[in-house]
Design goal:
With 173 residues, this protein is mostly helical. It is built from 10 helices and no strands. Helix 2 packs across helix 4 and helix 6 runs parallel beside helix 8. It starts with a helix and ends in an 18-residue tail after the last helix.
Length: 173
């Protein structure tokens, strides 16, 4: 049934929408990103998606925030932002990591910390463990390859490592 929602949205632009898409603020570049991320099955090449974009972080963040259905479009946009433009999009990624309303995007970002430059990943990991999603996302963080990222969970006062987390100690007992 999702195709009916998407089809209806593409057929009847919303108030304030442009000719390039049904969501207010749509540009040709944004519409192309949405079309590329829309197929349910099949991969997406983040590097190819952002090639030629003047501001990939802003465009991907717009898609993640503005295209609610189907849900995988926003998640794929978050994945591409985290892997192709983490420095430029660091403020956006950090906001997602501490906002319960964007927990799905936060989970994607948390899972991609290893793919980011270490300084960015450590700042974002620090925001994650200090924020309201820490308990939910700590298991994702302790599975990272970087021991410094995993150590962020241990460094939190009163932090409890998820059961079975290799290399993480339980400070809650």
């Amino acid at each position: 049934m999702w195709w009916l929602v998407v089809g209806a949205a593409l057929a009847a632009p919303a108030a304030g929408a442009s000719e390039d898409g049904p969501w207010p603020g749509t540009t040709p570049a944004r519409a192309a990103l949405v079309r590329a991320l829309l197929p349910r099955h099949g991969g997406h090449d983040c590097a190819a998606l952002v090639a030629g974009l003047d501001e990939p972080a802003a465009e991907l963040a717009w898609v993640a925030a503005s295209v609610p259905q189907p849900g995988w479009v926003a998640l794929r946009a978050a994945d591409c932002l985290a892997t192709t433009a983490p420095r430029a999009g660091e403020a956006i990624l950090a906001r997602w990591l501490v906002d319960p309303a964007t927990a799905g995007l936060a989970r994607v970002v948390a899972g991609r910390l290893d793919a980011m430059p270490q300084d960015v990943a450590l700042r974002l990991g620090g925001a994650l463990v200090a924020g309201p999603l820490a308990a939910e996302l700590a298991p994702v963080l302790v599975r990272q390859d970087d021991p410094e990222l995993r150590a962020l969970v241990d460094a939190q006062p009163g932090a409890a490592a998820p059961p079975g987390a290799a290399g993480a100690k339980n400070l809650g007992n």
